[in-house]
Design goal:
α6 packs across α7 (127-135) and α11 crosses α16 (376-386). The model is unreliable at 1-9 (pLDDT under 50). The chain starts with a helix and ends with a helix. Helices cover 44% and strands 14% of the residues. The chain has 2 domains: 3-225 and 399-409, Glycogen Phosphorylase B (Rossmann fold, 3-Layer(aba) Sandwich); 231-386, Glycogen Phosphorylase B (Rossmann fold, 3-Layer(aba) Sandwich), CATH 3.40.50.2000. The strands form 2 sheets. The protein has a 7-stranded parallel beta sheet, sandwiched between helices. The chain has 17 helices and 13 strands. The chain is an alpha/beta fold and 412 residues long. The longest helix has 21 residues, at 160-180. α9 links the parallel β6 and β7.
Length: 412
Amino acid sequence: MTSRTWVRARSRPRRALYLSSPIGLGHARRDLAIAQHLERLHPDLQIDWLTQHPVTRVLEDAGEHVHPASAWLANESAHIEQESGEHDLHVFGALREMDEILVNNFMVFNDVVEETPYDLVIGDEAWDVDYFLHENPELKRFSFAWMTDFVGFLPMPDLGEREAFLTADYNAEMLEQRARFKRIRDRQVFVGNPDDVVDESFGPGLPDIREWTLDHYEFCGYVTGFEPPSEDEVVRSRHELGYGADDVLCVVSVGGSGVGVPLLRRVLDAVPLARERIPELRFLVVTGPRIDPQALLPVDGVEVRGFVPDLHLRLAAADVAVVQGGLTTTMELTAARVPFVYVPLQHHFEQNFHVRHRLERYRAGQCASYAEVSDPEWLADALVKLVGTDVSFRPVESGGAERAAAMLAELL
């Protein structure tokens, strides 16, 4: 290659392909914040996004460039919804049953990177791309950064020995891939801190999860994707929502997937009882982008909304909240110092172990089982007791997006 050709090749704009997990909306806000900081570090960087609904909606509203090939991806959220029961999602089993989806989506990804020479691919829990790159290392022709907020599949105790064997087997396969093909992941970023990693084993005869993660990952701290609003901003947000200083606001949210209808209905059953005790109590129920608000019967004192792009501001304006056990929503409430009840999906190992461990470390939230919140008296009593309580949550650190972006920037 002549020197002139080298200069010409180096002068092209740098390009990155960002893969953001579509299962829930938690990845969207943090990935968007990281991408914006990455662009500040590299003003010539062009970022394309390869992802699915509902993440695409968030990105398009933010003016980001969603790659047209995103339309060819098989929908992971729809599969997760089909595998769910009544507030029950055996998420490990659901992942094991989506091979056809993962293969399809990796092939779409491979076509995209063959067509466009990307300098960097960022995979936020892009399980398909990570797995098949390890299986086909010759297909890697770019820097690859892997991001996640948990490490290790964990068995649900009530599912017996077979569940324990299968999760350990999946973990062992991942450990073997990493040991054989270390060059696949040029950077491994854990969205959190070392103490956020569970102190459990990958399985019989396998390493400790926290010890292994400390040896293999870098930690950027938690990424909220926003700064907690000031008191004035909270007051303004409540006013814009139509709530006055005397109103007691409970926000109810079940994330970006479509598996939360049963929990929403249980909360609605408890509303009349809670309002008997606190007549000023009003409820804002956010169904998210994949649940039709019309699926819920009207209840006095309840406003139902669908997709809310700035949900974190609504959560920060609340006096109390009821949410599913997803990491993003619970950590947004923790950062905003709002007392809340969270209800992990049954058999969802991440929500029941990884998320709960992190929230306990932050001393945040009251964990409840679905059986407990199915009793309207119990839920009404829990909400009334939380209203007006002084929280003792540990503060959520800031600067995680900047630190993650700096780690990624070194790969460009």
